[in-house]
# Entry
Amino acid sequence: MSYADSISPEFFELEREAIFRRTWLHVGRVDQLPRSGSYFTREIAATRTSVLVVRDGRGEVRAFHNICRHRGNKLVWTDFPREETSGMARQFACKYHGWRYGLDGACTFVQQEGEFFDLDKDDYGLVPVHCDTWAGFIFVNLDRSPPQPLREYLGPMVTAVEDYPFDKLTECYGFRSEVPANWKLFMDALQEQYHAPIVHRNQRPETFEAHKGGFEAPHYQIDGAHRMFNSPGIRPWELPEDQIKPSERLLRGGLFGPWDPPEFHSETLIDGMRPGGHESVGVALFEIWPNFGIQLWERGWYHTYQHWPTAYNSHVFEWKLYFAPPGNASEAVAQEMTAVSLKEFALQDDNLIESIQATLGSAGLTAFPLGDQEVLCRHLHKTAQDWVAAYRSSNH
Ligand code: FES
Ligand SMILES: [Fe+2]
# Structure
């Protein structure tokens, strides 16, 4: 496989238009917009766009370009115009000359309107962005006319997990970091298990290999531009006493999640999680094209990954973990233990990715051999290359 797509500034310039301006991008969850007037902004560096996502007066989730129609000031921001923000509003007022907009994007007030020569406010509403939700996940599409509605875009493999009780898992932990590497390189590290026994050996129970297949994935699948794989379900509480860190045993949580599942746990192992039908499945990672991963665990919690490119050799990585609201302090501590353990896991990958970016391209190598467990890496890079090639041929 060639990594030319990860070391080329020109290729990234094409990815902006060919991929990020035409795909459905996950920007948040409906839980972030609990009431009419709740809003948040997202800065999408790959398309040089700021998006305002808001729940309007009728309860609909809508998205707009975050730009004032008067002279282009960024409309919604708090302390620093380049930073994302969130809150509650009855309307949005521009900080420059005070034009105002309703939650539905309509322009409602123009300062000294009479000086504007027959200006019709109806012509100056916020510019809408296509926005839709699936299973409580909010997506936007910056294409003026997206070729497919969201559900069709996600396809049957992804939508098969919509019965997972996402709406009950509202306790959210998250972190984000700037990673000096191409966005696809980090995704590669999350969509193969070949590296796990080496990179993560100190976080792995010694008997893991023998325990239901260890890190080896029993099933991989692709559906159009999306991909998924299953991993075995690890049950640390079933391992011998000396195989588990004392802190995990004490706090009843760790790398494989909180040990005590929520009471609706029996609803969480749904068929869509294991499309190959393998009995041993405990985890399913769905990578939704282009940059959003949802990892579902059989015991009632999940986490998401997102990779937002900022240049050919850098991106912002966001990781969010979702649990049932804890019923007591010990459940809360088990969730924190899970969040901290997973962060450690991600940092182990992160270290390597930076050095890969630095050396790729340095020795004149144009092809690298990938094994069977790395089939999803191959699919990601091929998909990116195909989309860029299609964009090029339609524009030249
Ligand atoms: S730029 Fe917004 S009111 Fe002038
Ligand atoms: Fe890893």
User: Anything to note?
Assistant: The CA atoms of residues 263 and 300 lie 9 Å apart. The longest strand covers residues 301-311. The mean pLDDT is 93. The two ends are 26 Å apart (CA to CA).
